[in-house]
Amino acid sequence: MKDFLRIEDLTVEYHSGRRHVHAVNGLDLQVGEGEALGFVGETGAGKTTTALSILRILPNPPAKVLGGKVIFKYKDLFTLSDKEMRAIRGEEIAMIFQDPMTSLDPVKTVGDQICEMILLHEHCSKKEAWEKAGDMLETVGIDRERAGEYPHQFSGGMKQRVVIAIALSCRPSLLIADEPTTALDVTIQAQILELMKELKKKYQSSMIMITHDLGIVAEICDNVAIMYAGSVLEYGSVFDIYKDPRHFYTKALFDSIPDVSRNQDRLKVISGLAPDPTDIPSGCPFHPRCPRCMDRCRTEKPEAVHLNDTHWAKCFLAEEEGRGSHE
Q1: Residue 209 phi/psi, 5° resolution?
Q2: Is 146 helix (H, G, I), strand (E, B) or coil?
Q3: What is the pTM for the complete model shown?
């Protein structure tokens, strides 16, 4: 499976007065053609900033890309003109944002909002675009007759279906979903996730699923990237990460999931707090919270230890820490 999106040494900061927030720190990542990648980490890890960097829609100021490359279909997106980048957004790369309530224009009908995306990227008449908009609504399970209605006439789950219809209206080859089920109740979450699985299969799109829910990743994704303090600490297939996690942060994430098969008085938590993004620790960024921290962890940045062709972890103990230590 060839990589058709590759991020190399991406570094992004937010500047606020004299404060420099280190949001993404030398991030390397790849997504294969037709692959679904789960992008997992705590709030503030830099997941959304990475997604906005791919689309080049970071707010500037205060955000600033200090270095790195985003190579999509052999083109470095950071070298393209604004006009060339506008042609890619929506048609080649689309994004489903976290909150459907704020993603839709309240004074335009949902049909007009889907038409707007189609007319922007396809050579067709307004009538043809409206017909395609109706088709897209039906694809996401909404009657085409509702195309003339406004967002406030839809429930939260229906709004998210409209947002998905807009994102997929030009059949992009890469879909970025930023916690698309956060604002929805559990029943609607399951429906939206099932819909996204069906549409990914139908359109053969690649996907980056940004989430903190490891259950969603297991349901939808092929590979997983574990992100912490702006860096990917572990990467591998779903099987690699779930059956044989090697970084202590990955293990801590799994340990913090409630286990209904065990009689537990208290939930396990990760000790300490995520680092202040204005003051990232030296060495391994997880070392202040790591139960096996060594002196070198405080001063040296661990390189990726390749455990097999698909699995690596940035930990000095990665090779000796197998599944047995997780259990």
Answers
A1: -100, 105
A2: helix
A3: 0.90
Where b means 16+ CB within 10 Å and e means fewer, 263-286 reads eeeeeeebeeebbebeeeeebbbb
For 321, residues 6+ apart whose C-beta sits below 8 A from its C-beta are: 246, 248, 292, 315
**CA–CA separation, 276 and 203 (whole Å):** 40
Residue that has been written with the tokens 């929506």 in this structure:
90
Look-up: residue for tokens 């280190």?
A: 22
Supply φ then ψ for residue 198, to 5 degrees: -65, -45
Q: Which residue has tokens 């053969």? A: 204
Residue 175 pLDDT exceeds 90: yes
3-state SS, one letter per residue, for 173-237: CEEEEECCCCCCCHHHHHHHHHHHHHHHHHHCCEEEEEECCHHHHHHHCCEEEEEECCEEEEEEE
Neighbours of 260 (CB within 10 A): 6
Nearest to residue 4, comparing CAs of 174, 172, 178? 174
Predicted pLDDT at 110: 97
- Listed in sequence order, the DSSP H helices in 41-121 are 47-55, 82-88, 100-103, 110-121
Enter the DSSP assignment of 87.
H
d(Cα 267, Cα 259) in Å, to the nearest integer? 9
Give the chain's mean pLDDT: 90
Ramachandran angles phi, psi of 86, nearest 5°: -60, -35
Residue 113: pLDDT over 90? yes
- In the block, which residue shows the tokens 């000095």? 316
